[in-house]
Specification:
Diaminopimelate Epimerase, Chain A, domain 1; globular; single chain; about 270 residues; Diaminopimelate epimerase; DAP_epimerase_DapF; 17-stranded mixed β-sheet; alpha+beta; 2 domains; amino-acid biosynthesis; isomerase
Length: about 270
C-alpha cells in the first residue's frame, strides 16, 4: 500500500489514497494505532484516507493516532490539499468534504497552503474551572474541533501535559472532551503557542485548529489584530487571517517528507 508522509508545521500525517476502497478491509481501530506508533512503524499524529465525493473534489476520513475520529484538522487540511494538488486529484483552488463541513483551500507559493476554515462557534470567555487543584480561567471556542485556551506569561515552563490532560478530561467538557492550548504574546499581533491534542493525548509540535482558536480569542480580547502569527513548538509560523466571525483562514507550510509503501511488518505486530 502506497502512502505519503507529510508535515504541517510539525504535525505529521500519513496520507493514503482510498478512492479505490482498498483500506475498507482494514479495521482502523487495529491498523491506525500500529502505523502511527513511533519507532515501531511509520509514526504520525494522524492518518487521512482520501476518498471520492459527489459534493466536492474529494472527501477525507481522518483518524487521530489512537484511531479516534476527529471532525477537523487545520494542519492536516493543508497537507491533504497539497497532496491532492500534487497527485492531480484537485487544482490549485479546491473544495473537500470533512465531518466539520466543506473546506476550501488554495495552493500558494513554495510549500504554503491557505485554507478557509469551517465557521467557528460556541465562543465563551471567563470559564473558571478547578484544574488539578488550582483555579484556572479559560476561554473556549470550537474551530471545527473544541479548544480550551489560556493566555500565559510563562509559556516555556507551563506544564502543558498535566494541565492539558486535566482540562481535556474535565467534567465541564464531557463527554467528548476538548483540546487545550496555552499561548503567550511575543509581539503586536504575534504569539507563541503550545497545544495538548485530544486523540494524540500528548503535546504536539503544532495544531492548526488550536492556532485559529488562540488567534480568535486574542482578537476578541483586543490584544491582537488580524492577521495573527503564531510560532509553533515545531519552530514554524502559522498565520491566521480573520476577515469576519464566519470567515477565518489558516496559512502555513505543508511539506512532503517522504513517499513509500507499507509492508505487512509495519502493522502486523
Amino acid at each position: 500500500m502506497a502512502f505519503w508522509k507529510m508535515s504541517g508545521s510539525g504535525n505529521d500525517f500519513i496520507i493514503i489514497d482510498n478512492r479505490d476502497g482498498k483500506m475498507n478491509k482494514f479495521d482502523p481501530r487495529q491498523f491506525i494505532p500500529k502505523i502511527c506508533a513511533r519507532s515501531l512503524s511509520v509514526g504520525a499524529d494522524g492518518v487521512f484516507y482520501i476518498e471520492n465525493s459527489d459534493e466536492a473534489d474529494f472527501q477525507w476520513q481522518f483518524f487521530n493516532s489512537d484511531a479516534s475520529v476527529a471532525e477537523m484538522c487545520g494542519n492536516g487540511a493543508r497537507c491533504v490539499a497539497r497532496y491532492a494538488f500534487l497527485n492531480g486529484i484537485a487544482g490549485k483552488n479546491m473544495r473537500f468534504k470533512t465531518l466539520a463541513g466543506i473546506i476550501e483551500a488554495e495552493i500558494k507559493e513554495s510549500v504554503n497552503v491557505k485554507v478557509l476554515m469551517t465557521k467557528p462557534f460556541d465562543y465563551k470567555k471567563g470559564i473558571v474551572l478547578d484544574v488539578a487543584g488550582s483555579k484556572r480561567e479559560l476561554s473556549f471556542i470550537n474551530t471545527g474541533v473544541p479548544h480550551a485556551v489560556i493566555l500565559t506569561d510563562d509559556i516555556d515552563t507551563f506544564d502543558v501535559f498535566n494541565t492539558g490532560r486535566a482540562v481535556r478530561y474535565h467534567d465541564y467538557f464531557a463527554p467528548k472532551g476538548t483540546n487545550f492550548n496555552v499561548y503567550a504574546k511575543t509581539g503586536e499581533s504575534s504569539f507563541k503557542i503550545r497545544t495538548y491534542e485530544r486523540g494524540v493525548e500528548n503535546e504536539t509540535l503544532a495544531c492548526g485548529t488550536g492556532s485559529v482558536a488562540c488567534a480568535i480569542c486574542a482578537v476578541k480580547d483586543g490584544i491582537a489584530k488580524s492577521p495573527v502569527t503564531l510560532r509553533t513548538m515545531g519552530g514554524t509560523d502559522l498565520m491566521v487571517h480573520i476577515e469576519s466571525d464566519e470567515k477565518v483562514f489558516l496559512e502555513g507550510e505543508a511539506r512532503v517528507i517522504y513517499t513509500g509503501e507499507f509492508t505487512e511488518e509495519s502493522y502486523m505486530y
